[in-house]
Design brief:
Strands 1, 2, 3, 4, 5, 6, 7 and 8 form an 8-stranded mixed beta sheet that branches. The chain contains 10 helices and 8 strands. By secondary structure, it is an alpha/beta fold. The two termini are about 25 Å apart. The radius of gyration is 18 Å and the shape is globular. α1 links the parallel β1 and β2.
Length: about 280
């Protein structure tokens, strides 16, 4: 089985619609794919409706969190999307995205970059607006060559010249909410230092003690040495190890199935979850 547990669609900051994403996943030869858009589940229904036969969908979301002043992301799998407490928190985070993006546009204007809110909103479309949409606008204007080049201290990285904070959930509260909604929690790309500051491993240990299920080890932003170190951390803390592409369509260079999750780990995730169940493909529409 080939299992990719971290992907994004146009419901947040990917460039493939949910339907296009699942069709592409099947064509790529994946058996299981998780749709984990940022702080939203709006793409799930479309993905389910288009799900090809032979492909299983794991519903999920990537929750925006902050610990000790450091931004981090929590992958939530197979939770009840209508559970009131988690739904309210996702909406709170999502609603803060628009004023945050407008604030980044204002800072960029002050730096002499002629980006407009209308341009960023057009790029985001119906998705949850975020830094990748602002970064795409910078690429379109020729300010930076790639989206990744916008995530530096010069521009949009944490603490960068055009960075604006948004509401982010305390990760321990996120764990409580995910578990309360019957889901499974995996810390996404925990050592992706190229994105900015990362939380210390003592925080990972504290999260493990609070109920964290796993850490995403095999990821494009972790080099071989980092993956080896994180595997050791997972063994010591009794955490599951996942791997995934973090696919965003054409917005990033990663490809579907670039890294995958062991079938036994996937089985354990499905055993622990009780908020929702994996959806087998029925041929799509």
């Amino acid at each position: 089985m080939r299992i990719d547990l971290h992907t994004h669609s146009t419901a947040s900051d990917g460039t493939d619609t949910p339907a296009q994403l699942v069709r592409k996943a099947a064509a790529t030869g994946l058996d299981v794919i998780a749709l984990t858009d940022h702080d939203t589940t709006r793409g799930h229904a479309e993905a389910v409706a288009a799900l090809p036969e032979g492909l299983t969908l794991v519903t999920g979301a990537e929750l925006s969190c902050r610990a000790g002043g450091v931004s981090m992301h929590m992958l939530a799998y197979l939770f009840d999307p209508e559970e009131p407490a988690l739904l309210a928190e996702r909406e709170l985070v999502r609603d803060d995205r628009v004023p945050r993006a407008k604030g980044m546009v204002a800072k960029l204007n002050a730096l002499g970059v002629p980006v407009t809110w209308e341009q960023v909103a057009r790029i985001a479309g119906d998705g949850s607006v975020g830094r990748p949409h602002v970064a795409t606008a910078l690429v379109d204007l020729g300010v930076v060559p790639t989206v990744g080049d916008a995530f530096t201290r010069d521009w949009l990285a944490d603490g960068g010249r055009a960075f604006v904070e948004k509401h982010e959930t305390d990760p321990f509260e996120a764990l409580r909410l995910i578990k309360g909604a019957g889901g499974v929690a995996v810390f996404a790309h925990p050592a992706a230092a190229k994105r900015g500051r990362t939380v210390p491993e003592t925080t990972i240990a504290e999260l493990a003690a609070a109920g964290l299920d796993g850490i995403e080890v095999d990821h494009m932003d972790h080099d071989a040495e980092t993956r080896t170190r994180l595997r050791g951390t997972a063994r010591e803390l009794g955490l599951l190890v996942t791997g995934s592409s973090d696919y965003h369509g054409s917005r990033k260079t990663c490809v579907l199935g670039e890294y995958t999750t062991d079938p036994e780990v996937y089985g354990e995730i499905t055993r622990r979850a009780f908020g929702a169940f994996p959806v087998p493909g029925a041929g799509g529409v």
